[in-house]
Structures are given as structure tokens and as C-alpha cells.
Amino acid sequence: MSRFQIRVPATSANLGPGFDSVGIALSKYVTLDCQPADEWFFSVPEEDQPYIPSGKSNLIYKTALFTAEAMGYEELPSTHVELTNDVPIARGLGSSSTAVVGGIELADHLLGLGLSRYEKFKIACEIEGHPDNVGPAIFGGIMVSNYDGEHLDYVHFTEGMDDLTWLAIIPDYHLETEKARGLLPVEMDYKQAVNNSGSANVLVAALATKNWALAGKMMQSDRWHQPYRQVLIPGFSSFKEILEKEQSLGHYISGAGPTTVALFDVWDEGKRKRLELALEDYQVEPLQVNLSGAETFVLAPEK
Ligand code: HSE
Known about the structure:
Pathway: Amino-acid biosynthesis; L-threonine biosynthesis; L-threonine from L-aspartate: step 4/5
Shape: globular
Keywords: Amino-acid biosynthesis, ATP-binding, Cytoplasm, Kinase, Nucleotide-binding, Threonine biosynthesis, Transferase
Number of strands: 11
CATH architecture of the largest domain: 2-Layer Sandwich
Helix content: 25-40%
EC number: 2.7.1.39
Radius of gyration: 19 Å
CATH topology of the largest domain: Ribosomal Protein S5, domain 2
Number of helices: 10
Bound molecules: L-homoserine
Order of helices and strands: EEEHEHHHEEEHHHHHEEHEE
Structural class: alpha+beta
Distance between the termini: 15 Å
Family: Belongs to the GHMP kinase family. Homoserine kinase subfamily.
Oligomer: single chain
Subcellular location: Cytoplasm
């Protein structure tokens, strides 16, 4: 087995009312540089070491083993995996999905499974429970999917998104998805649910027809989850005025938060500088769509 590299993009889920269903792959990456070894070991960047284990409790390894077992194998060839991580942990940019998808890609390559993207997606949903981050991490672009624990349906689209900028406003604190999901109601009024479903439908239709202004408007119309989660993201209510001044089309809590993502169809250096200044307490990163999804590259042997 020669050296190989797996690259998995960050993702931003929900896009407002597309709760647990809509997601986009963005231009931040986790890379796994892999080579045969005597035992399994993950080299983890120093700043991530408190959160990412280097042994077999690593989520990437656990997912790779889950995938192998699902395909009838009992073990995986021992590998040294060197991680390079540009996706901040527990910030709403799909860091756990990058690990799940990375693990599936790893098993697929090590065992020569030849899994289709749909098969990878199905395994990832079994682990993650909802498809909105793992889908775009595998396929790239925008994914609209539904998973009920058994059936998995999706629509994938990539067209016309090259000129958009997805501005990630990343706070310096972690927010665990479980905590953010714990704030959501157990039930919702029928009329309210119908309304929310309508917003999600218009969001998806607007994205599919490249009506970015309407998509941006819909991002802010969500009543499924954002009203309940804002309490965990103290700066969120202050972003609207700042972003509208720079002609953002709309913004939303990315995944379970705490990152906010704002959509722009026109972007320039002036906007970047002014927004960095206005949002100086945050890491502000203008991102583009990633269209390829997870990729594996075979590398030349080390000399
Ligand atoms: N749809 C998920 C949520 C994304 O908002 O909780 C985070 O896993």
C-alpha cells in the first residue's frame, strides 16, 4: 500500500430553515496523510490534541472500522495518519462530519472497497444520524437530503455557485451539537410547522434556481431552530445591521452554531476589511463553495 492523502471539506448545514436537510461544502479542509505503519497512530496538530485522540478511540478510526465491519472485514491494515486541520472543532462547520467521512474514505481506500458515493453517504448517515453535513462533505456543492433511519433520498446541485461568498463568522468558543439540540422543542404547533416547511421549500427552490436574494431572505425566516439557539450565541443579534450595511443577502447559524454564515453575491477587499474591523472579536473568513467533496489522492512513495 503506497502513501495516500484524503481531503474532506468543511460544511455548513441548515442554511436557515433547511434544518437537518440542507448543507453546503465549503473551502476549508481536513487532510489525512496516510502511510502503512506497525500500529495505528494519528498525528494530531498540537492545538487539537485536547479534543482529538491519537489512538483507536479517534472518530476517524472508529468510523473506518465500522465501515470495514459493515462490508464483512474484521480489521484494517495499520496506518499512520497525519492530520492537518483547518476546520475548527465544535464551531458549526462540520468538523465531526469531516472525521466520519474521512474514516469512510480511509476504509474504502485501505480495503479497496470501491464504495459508491451513495453507499458512503448511507454509512455516514447511520453514524451521524442526519445527512446535512455528511452529504456535502462527500458530494461537494449543495445537498438537499432526507434520512429517516432507513431511507435516504437526496438532490445534489452545484451550478452557478462559483461567484458566491459564504462569510464564516467564527467565535472563539466551542458549542457541542448535543447542547444546541437540547434547546429545541419536542413538539411544534401544526400551523407553525406548515409555515416552517413553506420557508424551507422556498429556500430550496431559490437555491436550485440561483435566486440568491430570495435564498438569503429565507435563511433568516427560519423558525425550526434558530430562535431557540440564539441564546447560546450572544453576538448573533448584532450581526444583522453590520452585514446588511455590506449588502449581505442573508445570514444564518451554521449547523448547530456557534459560527454564523452570511451570503454575498458581490464581494471585494473593501468589504473584507470593513467586516474584519466591525467583527473584530471573531475569526472572519470569506469562503467559497467546494464542488468536489471528499477526495483521495495516491502519493508518490517517500524517498
Ligand atoms: N442539522 C444539525 C443541527 C447540524 O442543526 O443540529 C449539526 O450537526
